[in-house]
Each structure stands twice: as C-alpha cells, then as structure tokens.
Amino acid sequence: MIPFNVPLVIGDELAHIQNVIATKKFSGDGDYTKKCSELLAEQSGASSVLLTTSCTHALEMAALLADIKPGDEVIMPSFTFSSTANAFALRGARLVFIDIRPDTMNMDENCIEEAITPKTKAIVPVHYAGVSCEMDKILSIAEKHNLMVIEDAAQGLMSSYKGKPLGSIGDLGCYSFHETKNYNCGEGGALLIRNPEHKERAEIIREKGTDRSRFLRGQIDKYTWADVGSSYLLSELNAAFLYPQLLRMGEINKNRLTTWDYYYEILTPLHNAGAIELPVCPEQCTHNAHIFYIKCADIDERTDLAQYLKQHEVQAVFHYIPLHSAPAGQMFGRFNGEDRYTTLESEKLLRLPLYYGLESEKVELIVSHINAFYRGRKKV
C-alpha cells in the first residue's frame, strides 16, 4: 500500500531528544522551545512566536486574545476542520460560515462583507492546501469594520501571499505541527503575533493564566494567577523533535514541491481531456506543496476512484465534510448567503499521497492507476 502520508522523520530527532533527557528539563520554554520559536519568527517575520501543544490550542489562544465573548460572531469558511470552529464556539461565539471560491477552495472574500453584523468580532481566513486567501481584500474589510483577522495557517508554513509568509499577515496566525503536516512533532502548533502588545497576555494565557514567563525572565520575584488561561505550552521533548526539521525547512519544502510539480505535470493530459480538475495557485501566491488534490466530476465518481485506488494499494482521502452541514455546525453556527460551491466542490475533491521522500516511481504508478480508471470510464 502506498500510504496517503508518512510522518516526517528527518534523521536527527533522536539526538536532540537525548539532549533534552540529559538536561532533565522536559517541560516547555527551555532551549529547544526558544530555538524553534526563533527559527519560526525569522521565517515568518512575526514579532513573536509561541509554541503550543497544537494548532487547535493556538486558535483557542487567539480567540481569548481577540476577547471573543458569548453572542459575538466570527466569520469563517465552512470548508475547514472542526478546530477552526471549536476555538470560537468554546468562547460562546456564533459561527458565521460563508461560501468558498471554487478555484482555491478558500473563503470567498466577496462574501465576507454581507456576512458582517454589529455582533461580528473577527474574520478567520483558512489557507487551504497552503494556498493563501485573498488577504489584501480581507484586511481591507477588517480595517473598515474594526475586526480582527486570525489566520488559520495550519497548512501554511513556507507559503506566502505577495511575498508575505502566511500566518504573519493578520493580527494573529496559527501553525500546526501535527504528524500530517510538512513539519511535525506528533502534536504541536504555534501562535504568531503581529502586534507586540499581545505578547505578554499571550504568554499568560499559555501558562495557565499565570505570569510565570515574566518570573522566569527575572522581571518579577514571584508569579501568580493573572488571567484566564490553560496549559498550552509545548514540551521540550516535542520541541526537540521539531527543531531539526525546522533547520532544514528549505530542503524539505523543495522535496515536496518537486513531487507536487511532478504530479501536476503528468496529470495535465487528464486535465486537458476534461476528465479531472487540477489545483489552482493564484499568481500572487506561493504554496508549500502541503496537499496535492484532484477534482472528479462528482461525489460518485470520487467514491469510485478512491475505491479503485484502494484496490490497487493506493490510499487517497477526501477533505472535509462542510461544517455547516454537521450537527455541531448547525448547533453553533449558520451559513450566510448561498452555498454555491462549498458542498459541490468539497464532494469532488480527492487528495493523493504526498510526503517527504515520495519516490517519482510511486507518483508514476499512482497516476497510471488514475489514467486506467478514466480509460475504463471512456473519459480519455
């Protein structure tokens, strides 16, 4: 079986974990936490970066920093993972889902303004597959209506919009280091902060509501409970696993892009024949090859193709069930406007195997099976 994903192990992780064990400093905010944060701040240009236990927790911290309260409304796409919505539902917010663009699968920036009400507090763009949303228009709308912009850049590390790294463009940004991501430590994430004024409160929220970070820096002689918060701090063991991968971000990114480009090249004849659709990356965006997907004619064809590939020992998966159609989505939110593309396009999408070190021969084999499937349907 060619798996959909193989979690990245670059080769130096164990040595760094052994360094942590030797220091007997396992909880977060040690040397590896600081090194990872510095590398991410350097790459992203964010004023500060705080490692978290997950991107989910980074989003929860962002909701607290945005002062989301019961009855507030938060605008986001329905085509996203539940974590995007949960972070704000936990604060009592009403989720306002809007339609996506069929080309990038990102929120349709032209649907945002009509979804704004006096209760709206934030816009949450989700950069699907590491391809940026139309951030200039989103920021312009946010400024006009005095709203915060919180980027769900879980899939966006090493991607950019007009030269600006994703996650650093809005007020706050969130990365994921889950094992399915381009860089991973099993479970992990990061909160990116653009405005330095947010940093001190973010540190307090991350440290269970205490000002322990200031104490560790010697700024105060004792620490105490200062605000709401939770245990959002990544352990040093996870940070040590992540660190060598971040040191080699460029190499890893190049390898994935090579695979992505090869998929695109050898699937183009099927696209030109009208059998499938290929991913779109707008000219002003650079992506990080997080996902390679194709779009089938409809959900039935996608189901048949996924089953066909499984029979030929290739694991391909779809992504996501739109949140507004889920039970919790109906409980905590509403869809604003017409669902022209969210459901329709999500039902066509099939993700192909893509991971660091995927051999070109396996890419060719996967594509040969896809070609055979469509020949059987007389589409090519």
Describe the structure.
The protein is built from 13 helices and 13 strands. With 380 residues, it is an alpha/beta fold. It is 38% helix and 13% strand. The strands form 3 sheets. An 8-stranded mixed beta sheet has the order 1-9-8-5-4-2-3-12, sandwiched between helices. It folds into 2 domains: 13-247, Aspartate Aminotransferase, domain 2, CATH 3.40.640; 249-376, Aspartate Aminotransferase, domain 1 (Alpha-Beta Complex), CATH 3.90.1150. The model has no long low-confidence stretch (mean pLDDT 97). The chain is globular and about 75 Å long.
Q: What is the CA–CA distance across the termini? A: 26 Å
Low-confidence stretches: none
CATH topology of the largest domain: Aspartate Aminotransferase, domain 2
For the biggest β-sheet, the strand order reads: 1-9-8-5-4-2-3-12
- Please, what is the CATH homologous superfamily of the largest domain? Type I PLP-dependent aspartate aminotransferase-like (Major domain)
Domains, number = 2
Structural class: alpha/beta
Order of helices and strands: HHEHEHEEHEEEEEHHHHEEHHEHEH
Largest pleated sheet: 8 strands, mixed
Q: Summarize the amount of helix as a percent range.
A: 25-40%
How much of the polypeptide forms β-strand, as a percent range? 5-15%
Number of strands: 13
Q: From the coordinates shown, what is the CATH architecture of the largest domain?
A: 3-Layer(aba) Sandwich
Number of helices: 13
Q: What form results from the Cα inertia axes? A: globular
Mind telling me the CATH class of the largest domain?
Alpha Beta
Gyration radius, in Å? 21 Å
Mean pLDDT: 97
